[in-house]
Amino acid sequence: MAVKGVSLSVKQGQIITLIGANGSGKSTLLESVCGLLPDWKGEITFQGTPLKGLDPPAVVRQGISLVPEGRLVFAPISVLDNLKLGAYTMYRKRRHAEVSQTLEKILDLFPILRQRAKQPAGTLSGGEQQMLAIGRALMSHPKLLLLDEPSMGLAPLIVEKIFHTLEMLRNDGITILLVEQNAQAALQIADFGYVFETGNVVLQGPATELLADQEVKRAYLGKDYGEFYDDNR
Amino acid sequence: MIINSQNTRNRIAYAVFLLVIVVSGYFLENLYYLQLLTFIGINTLLALALNMLMGYAGQISLGHAAFYGIGAYGTAILTVHCHFSPWLALPAAIAVAMAVAYIVGIPTLKLSGYYLGMGTLGFGMIIHILFREWSSITGGASGFIGIPPLELGPVSFASGRNYFFLVWGCVLISFIACQRIIDSRIGRALRAIHDGENAAAAVGVNTRALKLQVFVLSAAISALAGFLYAHLVFFISPGTFSFIASIRMVTMVVIGGMASVWGALLGASLLTLLPEWLHAFSEFEMVVYGLILMLVMIFLPRGLFRGLLDIYERTLKKNTH
User: Fold this and answer.
1) Which end of chain A is more exposed for a tag (fewer CB within 10 A), N or C?
2) Do B203 and A81 touch (CB under 8 A)?
């Protein structure tokens, strides 16, 4: 089973990144936080509230939103309805005015989604779908945004754009936990990082330090031993 | 606004629908056609019920005839054996169907795909056997005779015309109720469950509760159809609520078009009318019937409603160019 012994903390108002290769248990960890995987041992607390035993809707109500791996937008449903689904828990409390206000804000944040509002989400490009997935997650006014490999399968230029949006969201006061394989891009915007290997945190520190760290460079920043030794001469 | 234009379109559609019902109800003189249309109405209710579950929420049921049967046998037993007024038997029969759906739904809806199909199939068979074998109450295989006609004060529904209006009134109300659910956040959530249950849960949809609720709603509409059927024909037998009936309901949904209330209407109409039209082919009737269903699926894989809409839009585009 994925993940064994992990201990990490996410500070308010920061971008925290979790770097690791395939199969290191990053996604499993996020799914446990969100209540999608109910069966785990240990302790997860959010602003002092234990999340153990909460089902996904309850976790969303706590102020935690997940942008799932592979985006998972609802393909046959229109972009607008996808966004409205993100506010599912808000509609329940009849906060309609607030929802339409948030909707406008998100359509301003991602103007392309406004153009595509009536299209089925499945017809969008990968980058647009990622923006939609982020927009949908923002609809519930999260305090903490969890992103599972948002850069997957996207062109570098699009990744840059999306990561820039994440910085803007952080500056607006949203805390972000960013799970990534693209260590270079993630560490550039993050405040703090954890390196994850087969269920354990093997390295942690401020993002700038990790960017300079030789071990990280070797394993995750796409430098082979040759370059690595060249750098250190 | 996008939402408003869609609302007006819906409103126009319902106004036209109401007009067609009223006009055909008043001006059709032929009792055979009136009765045929009444059957279409009952089948439309069934297709609508299953469409809510299958077309929107994506949960297949191969045993839905059970709820149809519970509605029919429920009112038969209550009116004949217990001397209830049919109008009291109606809510009672619907309540029984809903309770059964709730109890059966809790374990069954944890399944998905083929396994859910198998589970509901088994449930449908159990209920069918119950109708057939519990002869002291249901009349067994020879059927249940003597179901009373419906009356409401001075209005008798024994005549074909009044019954036509009763059934299509129920269809119209069910359509509007279902459309309202579909257009609300619940409808969006149902379609989200259809597309991906985990992703739906991740945005905060309580998938288990919602699947159960739509299953119960679907059972209630099916039971209403069963009630209308029983008081129309006065005689019911277990064969009407067999496995084949469940499959016919699924076919109506698929042929008409998933996730569309109008698809339910088209599917029910086609599957009720086809056997009548195909009498001319005598022994080849079933062959032609099967062939037509195959052709619809090959050329209009998204069902009649979407398919015809696509063709209409395409010709519209061609004409403007």
Assistant:
1) C
2) no
Longest dimension (CA), chain A: 64
Say yes or no: ipTM exceeds 0.90.
Answer: no
Interface of A with B (CB under 8 A): 34-36, 55-57, 60-61, 66, 68, 72-77, 80-81, 84-86, 88-89, 91-92, 117-118, 136-137, 140
Assigned domain for A130 exists: no
Q: Do residues A186 and A192 make contact, with C-beta atoms less than 8 angstroms apart?
A: no
Contact at CB, A57 and B206, closer than 8 angstroms: yes
Q: What is the CATH number of domain B2-320?
A: 1.10.3470
Q: B180 with A37: CB under 8 angstroms?
A: no
- In chain B, where the domains are located: 2-320
Q: With beta carbons less than 8 A apart as the criterion, state whether A21 and A193 touch.
A: no
Instruction: Report whether A5 contacts A200 (CB < 8 A).
Output: yes
CB contact under 8 A, B188 and A57: no
**What is the spatial distance between Cα B121 and Cα B250, in angstroms, rounded to a whole number?**
12
Tokens in use for B217?
A: 């709603």
CATH code where residue A172 lies: 3.40.50.300
Phi and psi (nearest 5°) for B282? 35, -110
